[in-house]
Amino acid sequence: MPVAKPSRSIPEHSGTSYPPPHDERVKRRAWRALGNAFGLTQFGVNLVRLEPGIWSSQRHWHALEDEFIYVLSGHPTLVTDAGEERLSPGDCAGFPGGVKDGHHLKNDTDTIVEILVVGSRVPEDHGEYSDIDMVFRPGRAGYATKGGTPF
Predict the structure, then answer these.
(1) How many domains in the chain?
(2) Which among 13, 40, 108, 111 has most CB atoms closer than 10 A?
(3) CATH label of the domain that carries residue 29
(4) How many Å apart are CA 131 and CA 103, to the nearest integer?
(5) Is 32 within 8 Å of 13 (Cβ atoms)?
(6) What pTM was computed for the model?
(7) What's the CA gap between 8 and 31, in Å, rounded?
């Protein structure tokens, strides 16, 4: 396994596993799984690219996993329960697991946004989407409504 490699040599992925209609705003997001390229298992590291009009995710919170974001380029809008805040390159934010403060980034500018996303990998993690009737379940169990009906 190489000690170092250019991030652009790591394959880019795009899309989402969200069910319709919740997939619309995020299905064109793109990312490079940097942590996977080095066999990291305790935390994930992703280089995320958001074209104009694209969101990083639906607004959500994790029960067990911590998340951290660092803005590399562009000016995304961070949306949390406190409202919206425009970020700039060099800005960062952290979201501790268990804090029910839904968050996501949206690119409402006309230029590409790149962010570094770091998160813990807890197989039992689960959480909720703040603005829609959807939860994510532990492991790869998928999505359900807040009442428990699977999508």
Answers:
(1) 1
(2) 108
(3) 2.60.120.10
(4) 10
(5) yes
(6) 0.93
(7) 11
